[in-house]
Structures are given as structure tokens and as C-alpha cells.
Amino acid sequence: MSTWREELGTSHEMIPLLQSIFANVSDAILVVDRGGQIVKVNAALEQMTGWTEEELVGRKHICELCLGMATCLEETTCADCFFKQVQLPSFEMRLRTRDGREYPVAASSARLPDDGNGKLVLVIRDMSAQQRAEKERYQHKLTNYVIQAQEEERKRIARELHDGVGQALYSILVGLNVVGQSSLSDPIRQHVNDLLQMTSKAMEEVKRMALELRPSALDDLGLLPALRSLMKRVEKSFGIQVELHAQGERRRYPAATETALYRIVQEAMTNTAKYAQASQLGIVFEDREKEIVVTIVDDGVGFDVDQTLHTGKGLGVFGMRERAQLLGGTLDIRSAPGEGTTVIVRIPIQKEETEHGDSRPDR
């Protein structure tokens, strides 16, 4: 049976190979003597910590770099330190860099068996990028959950307004009409007429609120009919001429896609109506088979996009972008003072998504 020396070559041949591995491996490696003094480091550790080999070897103790370790049983602590173990295959430690920063790293340690001085080898891998990615995934899931819960609550409140408050106001209106047809004195008749007008206005307001919360057309008929209904309300309320051009196949999309696109267009139109001083607004809806592209263009006064976002005034823009990103899409806003505003949103969509969803055509 061959030994590891025979399989890998003579010890003389192994030295350059081991040195090359030590120098070029992407994980940081440091060697510590029995007293905790650093006796050897590789280039990856220098890059990770900012310290040079000359600053570390023979000058630094391991505790000057390590701020405590954590395992699946304990939070970050110095108790039961890896330095006391013969071998610890996996743990997390907090590493201090030369400029005073602290960040988590994954590590493993092993004491060299043939070394009479009891040297310990510590292999370290930077976990900050992985943790950032994990945090972003968690934030993505949380935001998606919040938006879905918000839409469900909007739908519930809109239904309650329509079926509850709206129907009650309608009954009051019918009753006032009956009373108004009776023989009444002029002052009382005028009072009844005033109540009729107030009730009618209240019904219109309830209807408007229900539509703003969740238009029934979005669930029953699809995205394009809901957008056309939104256009009519904007034209009536703000006096802006709105045109919609739809290109490509007319079909239903996944509910999350339709809701996101509707909210993005709604926010863009609301911003135009409130701030742009525009007289015309155009919407181009393109079904490109694998993606949906919606372009909203107005002839308003425009604005400085970067300045608005940096000053924290663009919360609506952040919301639009968040909705697009949750579906793997993008949102681009192009504007400048005096040049109007263009909003372009792209949402990828797979063919099977529509086949498994509602196959009715979007009218």
C-alpha cells in the first residue's frame, strides 16, 4: 500500500506545490503557535484584513484579529475558543481589520499533528457578501409578502365600501326620494333635496375610494380594461388627455404581474397629474411574448431624477421600482427640467405562466 508521500511525490517535490497552494488559494490562511502568536499568513489574509505579513508575523496575537466565535450552540463569545480545540471543522468568527472594521467570516481550525510546537492552522472565508445576499433575499421575500397582504386588504376594504357603505347610502337615497315625493312644506322639501345631493355626493366618493383601492375590472376583466378605466378617471379629474396604445397579443397575465403593472402605471399617472403640469400623457403597452414593456410619457415640466431620489422625495418612485424588481423586472425613469418624463417598465413573463393562469383574453 502506497503512502501519501509516494502518491504525491517526494517531500522535496511537494514543497513548491504546497507553497503555491498556500500563496494562491482564495481562502485566507494563518498559522498560529501554541501561545497564540501569528507565525505565517498568506496573501488572501493580507487582502482580507489590510495588514501586511510583516505587520502580523511575530507581532500580532490571534486575539487582536478575532473578536469572538460562534457555533450552532452559542452566540459570538470567547468561551470554549477554537484555540483550545484540536480541531474545529466549522464555526463563525468576527474578524477585525486593520482599519477597525468588523465583519463575520466562516472559519475552520486544525492543530498540526506532526508539529512539536503545537501550531494551529486557521482557514477563513469572507461571509459578508453571502450574508448581504441572504439579507437581500429575506428583504425581497418580506417586501413581497407585505405587498400581497396590502393588496388583499385593499380588495377587502373596497368590497366592504361597495357592498356595505355603498348599499347603505343607496338605500338612504331611495328613501329620501320617496319622502321627497310626499306632500311637504317648501322648507322641508328643500332640506330633503339638500340631503339627496349630499347622499349622492357621498355615494360618488365611496365609489371613487373603492376604485382607487382596488378596481374590480382588474380582477374581472384584466389589466388593459382596468387601465382604460383609470385613464377615464384621470382625464375627468385632472383634465389631462390620455392615450393608450396596446401592441401584441391580448391576454391575461398572472395576478401579481397585472397588479404590479397597474400600480406602477397608476403611480406614474398620479405623479404626472399632481406635479408635471402636463396636458397630454401617452401609454404604450407592448406584449413581446417573453416580456411586457410599458412606457408612460408626459409633456410636463420634468424633474431632476437623481436629486429627487437622493433627497428622499421619490418614495413613489422607490415603490414603483420595488414592484418591478419583485417580479424580476426593471424600471427606468428618464426626465430633466423642461423636457417631460418617460417611465419604462419591463416585466419578464414566461409562456407557461399564462397557460397555468387565467386563459381568458384581455379585452
TrEMBL record:
Its EC number is 2.7.13.3. It catalyses: ATP + protein L-histidine = ADP + protein N-phospho-L-histidine. Its cofactor is [4Fe-4S] cluster. The keyword Cytoplasm applies. Residues 18-65 form the PAS domain. Pfam families: HATPase_c, HisKA_3, PAS_9. Residues 156-351 form the Histidine kinase domain. PROSITE patterns: HIS_KIN (PS50109), PAC (PS50113), PAS (PS50112). Residues 89-139 form the PAC domain. This is Sensor histidine kinase. It comes from Brevibacillus brevis (Bacillus brevis).
